[in-house]
Design a protein that fits this description.
binds MU-OXO-diiron; Four Helix Bundle (Hemerythrin (Met), subunit A)
């Protein structure tokens, strides 16, 4: 079965901050992989492992951004961190849905994850990109 690209990377998602862009691309890759594992009906341990990887890497990425916010006194730090925490909570709730023999994550879950990532990168993440630019901060 050929791989389905749920979230196709596009230049518009680039912040111009290499570490952040690389992490975003990795996150998108993990999301696409998870989607394909479920689509192909893979075993629970593989799906579960992919979901764990997506969660763990989201946390790594969010911590990277949050460290920059603190280092450079980003004024919207609290709001942004709240968005990150809400995303992690949402993934945890999806994991809870996969109980017993139910391995299904509905298409709505993937629509949510994809849309959240796209809107978050284009919205909240671009705000700190612009702030860093305005302040002459190079990270
Ligand atoms: Fe790139 Fe705020 O997550």
């Amino acid at each position: 079965m050929s791989e389905y690209i749920l979230f196709e990377w596009d230049e518009e998602f680039n912040t111009g901050i290499p570490e952040i862009d690389n992490q975003h691309k990795a996150l998108v890759g993990l999301l696409n992989s998870l989607f394909n594992l479920l689509r192909e009906g893979k075993a629970r341990n593989e799906v579960s492992e992919a979901l764990n990887q997506l969660t763990a890497y989201s946390e790594v990425h969010f911590k990277t951004e949050e460290a920059f916010f603190i280092q450079y006194s980003y004024p919207e730090t609290e709001t942004h961190i709240a968005c990150h925490n809400a995303f992690i909570d949402k993934i945890d709730s999806f994991r809870d849905q996969m109980t017993g023999s139910n391995l299904t994550l509905s298409i709505d879950v993937f629509k949510y994850l994809k849309l959240w990532l796209q809107e978050h990168i284009l919205g909240e993440d671009m705000k700190y990109r612009d702030y860093f630019k305005e302040q002459g901060i190079t990270v």
